[in-house]
């Protein structure tokens, strides 16, 4: 039985690599012991490996804010998780980042980091940030800047037009939102909407973004 599971894991590694997946492939320790677990592993880049790497899927993946059971019968993150849910849309690709040099963007893609959700995962701890910085020949301050903008891009219901709007209002990332109170944030975004001749987000949406930023800062 053990030998059979080992052969299945080896086959799983081969399939994932053919699909273009990068990252640590210690699949047995990650809970992937059969080919049947493959789709679950490929669609769950937030799955942590014991080696402090993540299984980085090349596909875009949907947020884990909803509870439920995956196709292989594994339960997704439940409603009791204190972390705010990501947007219900597909996680933004890293190409939406504007505060990153093209050379670093290309190197991130070579590392298998194709979405801002994956970027947030691989920069979650100081150790991971240093590791990623070394891999793409950047500074840890660079990595923190990318993470800051990625956190803003993953606010609930946040889209590319909203990104443009908040940049116009002077909010380049989560830290800029945290630096002001809610009335100041709301006024700046409404003013920027007028300058760009765009419809401003509703007060409820703006309040939600501001409050989520506070929650993320406390996490």
Describe what you observe in this structure.
This protein has helices spanning 2-18, 38-42, 102-110, 116-122, 126-136, 140-153, 160-168, 174-178, 182-196, 203-218. It folds into two domains: 1-81, no CATH class; 94-218, no CATH class. Helix 4 packs across helix 6. It has 219 residues and is mainly alpha-helical. The radius of gyration is 19 Å and the shape is globular. It has ten helices and no strands. 30% of the residues are buried. Helix content is 49%, strand content 0%.
Task: Please summarize what this structure is.
The protein has 219 residues and is mainly alpha-helical. It is built from 10 helices and no strands.
Which keywords apply here?
219 residues; mainly alpha; 2 domains
SSE-based structural type: mainly alpha
Largest sheet: number of strands, sense, barrel closure: none
Strand content range: under 5%
Number of strands: 0
Shape: globular
Low-confidence stretches: 2-13, 15-88
Oligomer: single chain
Gyration radius over CA: 19 Å
Topology:
Blueprint: H1 2-18, H2 38-42, H3 102-110, H4 116-122, H5 126-136, H6 140-153, H7 160-168, H8 174-178, H9 182-196, H10 203-218
Helix pairs in contact: 4-6, 5-6, 9-10
